[in-house]
Structures are given as C-alpha cells and as structure tokens.
Amino acid sequence: MSLGQHLIELRKRLMISAIALVVGMVVAFFITDAVIQLLTIPINAIAMERGDESDVQLMFTTVTSAFDLRIRIAFAIGLLISAPIWLWQIWAFIMPGLTRKEVGYTAAFVGAAVPLFFAGASVGWIVMPHIVEIMSTFAPNGTALFYQADYYYDFVFKLMLVVGVSFVLPVFLVALNVAGVISGRGILKGWRVAVLVATLFAAVATPAADAVSMLMLAGILVVLFFAAAGVSLLFDRRRSKRESALLPPEAAG
Q1: Half-sphere exposure (CA, 13 Å, Cβ side) for 83?
Q2: Mean pLDDT within 83-110
Q3: Per-residue pLDDT tens over the stretch 12-60
Q4: Are 154 and 199 in contact (CB under 8 A)?
C-alpha cells in the first residue's frame, strides 16, 4: 500500500473507533447515577462513623461540575465498553506489517496484559474505600470533610489506573527481555527492591488493621514479578540454545 492508502486506512479505522466510543459513552451516560452512588459509598461510611452526614459530603463547586463529572464517567466507561472494537481496529491496522513471529508475540503480550490490567483495576477499586477511610482519620476533630467531586473522581480513577498498570509491569519486563534489553538474571537481581516496593504499596493500599489483605496484595505483586523473571529466564535459555546451535562445531567446542 502507498502512503496515501495507509492514511485512508488509518482514517477509516479511527472513524470506526470514534463512533464506537461515542455509542459507548451514550450508553454509559445512563448508568452514571449508579456509578456515582458506588463512588460515594466510602464517603457515606465515613459520615455514618462520624454521626453527622452534613459534615461529610461529595461537593460540586461549579454550575457545570455535576454534568462534567457525568461526562468523564461516561467517557471512561464508554472507552471500556467500546474496547473490543477499537482494539480490533488497532490490531487490524498494524497486523499486515508484522511478521508471523511478531504477530505471535504481540498477541501473547496483549492476551496477558489486558486481563492483568483489569485484575489490577479491580484490586484498586477494592482497596479504594480503605484508603479514603485512612485519609479521613487525619482530619482534626471538629472539622468537616467536603470532597470536591472532580478531585475525588480523579483520585479513584488514577488509583485504579496505577494499580492496573502495576499488575501489567511484569508483562513489560518480559517484553524488555524478549527485545534483549534486560536478561532474566538482571530482573531476578532486583527481587529485594520488588518485594520492598510491593510490601510498601500493599501497606498503603490496605487498612492498617487488615494484615491479611496487605499480605494478599503484596503476595500477588511478588508472584507476578517472579513469574516474569521465570519466563524471562526460560526465554534466555531458549535463546542461548538457539545461538549455540547456529555456531560452527569449532566455536561451540
């Protein structure tokens, strides 16, 4: 295909993806009420604990902030709903330019990364109420807790995004190993730092009194790290055998 044909193909793929996103947003807009109710569960729990709901509320500070929040929620959910369509459009555009081996690697990485990301985002949603509860304890007695809606939504969204990406990091480590950037031994050497980071993250993300949740979250992150190191070591061994087989007998000896 010529450059012009590639651009026409790209425009078509982008148009299909944009239409799918808009349709997903329209559908998602009708469930934003339920989503906002879910988001405010931790705030309501803090209000009940304090015994005064007037001092703990979700706050909209501008005329359009409530509508803006619904649009942002609809965009996030619409992106999720339309993901099968726009992911396929991306794949269909880049696949003709890949070799069979590259297609296999790409499919394997995407197949591993997508479920891990959603698993991590789900964990982020689970630990979010605990973080909100812990942060509320730093407010002095006699003060009110008014959560500005857009900042509160940003906090929840970014938390889910960060935890989701942290679950995908092992896949990126394997990708770097396949690309020859880092060896499996190099990944494994960082196990102490990985365990420390996983433990600190789990300690912050879970309530102080819930040691079981902390150990479970830290354990999942550590297992994913060692799984990435193990897969990378396996790839290194296969690569080493392949290179040895290509050497002449004199060099191999």
Answers
A1: 9
A2: 79
A3: 888 999 999 999 999 999 999 999 999 998 888 888 887 766 678 888 9
A4: no
Burial class of 15 by CB neighbour count within 10 A (0 to 12, 13 to 18, 19+): exposed
State which residues form the domain around 76: 1-97
- Which burial class, exposed, middle or buried, applies to 174 when counting CB atoms under 10 A from its CB (0-12, 13-18, 19+)? buried
Say if residue 1 is in the same domain as residue 116.
no
Q: Are 122 and 236 members of one domain?
A: yes
Same domain flag for 1 and 126 = no
My answer on whether 110 and 227 are in the same domain is yes
Is the Cβ–Cβ distance between 56 and 144 less than 8 Å? Answer: yes
Question: Which residue matches tokens 């929620």?
Answer: 73
Q: What is the pTM of this model?
A: 0.75
Determine the distance from the C-alpha atom of residue 148 to the mean position of all C-alpha atoms in its chain, rounded to a whole number.
Answer: 24
Considering only CA atoms, which of 34, 35, 27, 26 is closest in space to residue 156?
35
User: Is 179 or 15 the better-scoring residue by pLDDT?
Assistant: 15
Residues 28 and 133 in one domain: no
Boundary of a domain, candidates 71, 97, 123: 97
